[in-house]
Amino acid sequence: MLKNKKLIMIILVSFIISFNTFVFADDEEEQRYNEEEIQNLIVESVATPSEEPKINARAAIIYDRTTKEIIWGKNEKQKKAMASTTKIMSAIVVLENSNLSDVVTISKKAAGIGGSRLKISTGDKITVNDLLYGLMLRSGNDAAVALAEYVGGSVEGFASLMNKKARELGLNNTNFVTPHGLDNENHYTTAYELAMLTDYVLNNKTFSKIVNTKVTTISINGNSRNIYNTNELLGYMQGVDGVKTGFTNGAGRCLVTSCTRDNNQIITVVLGCDTKKDRTSDSTKLIEYAFKNYTRVNLEEKIQKEFENWKQINSNRIYINKAKNQKINLELREIHKKIIPIKVGEEKDIKIEINAIYNYEAPVEKEKKIGNIIVKNKDEIIETIDILCSKRVEKKDIFSYFIELISIMPNYKWLNT
pTM, whole model, 2 decimals? Predict the structure, then answer.
């Protein structure tokens, strides 16, 4: 009887462990939307694009790739679990530290991981390239572990490489424990930093190609297999060209999306959606809101034009006491925000204010600050640029005074009497 109870307890504990392993895993194996469903959902989500987005996600962001600016955000700097969007970092660490043609032999640990899987077995042989497709399209946790072990020596070693890369990119509110993103309290990021990471990673042509692939054929042990992308917007919504889905019980439904229209590219991130429909709808709303309500202003052009106009009027007003030459050459320090996203119709709210000091004692050194330009959007200062002296203004010496004296002597009448 006692032995039977122990056996039952062992079976029960095993069941609970197995249950937790799979329930809390990244589960992207659910049925994909059919074309009609996704099109209807997109239409529903863009009905009122001019309104502020009302979304289900716990955290979200619209990030402009050209300007590196946040167009819109919701709790975008709060730490959140991110599920399989983790694999964005995993992919770039692999791409920067291995060769695509390398062949990987699958370990027992990789083959045994739960959740969303590429369905590779112990001893299987597959290239790094095909594992990356399995990682990003199929969201394979087994592919993630296999790549981590190959590149980092172990999951822990690979996590160190991930965190090193995060620090290099200035992602100070991000920490990685695994290459796949299964729930762990020490595994987190923010919507903002996930967008920053994605912005960096999309510069890698191989990564961009992978995440923009809807279906591809990979080879395992020389046998071909078709795999499909879990990104429900890819191929259905105008301009969507990546990047990654995610789900765990702890993180909720997550989606990082890249969308390009008319050479303008944005990244949207939604974290902590309740359902797959919510994450699709939220992402669609954010994309349409950005493209239909925001334009880009060439701030550098506006500043340079205002500065040139100001110089024509004010350069001669600057007086330098005891200077050899009153002419002063002026230049601007670097303009950091060359282009900015702004709501359509609010371009007129950008104001440029120029301030300067008009009196100096010679010499005036090169790069001496003589004023600044303050750029405001309504009451918010968005850029401050120093105005500098671009060439040293020399002080008069004895010879200069002598020449000056000779030049004015004919004007004195007593010399001619």
Answer: 0.83
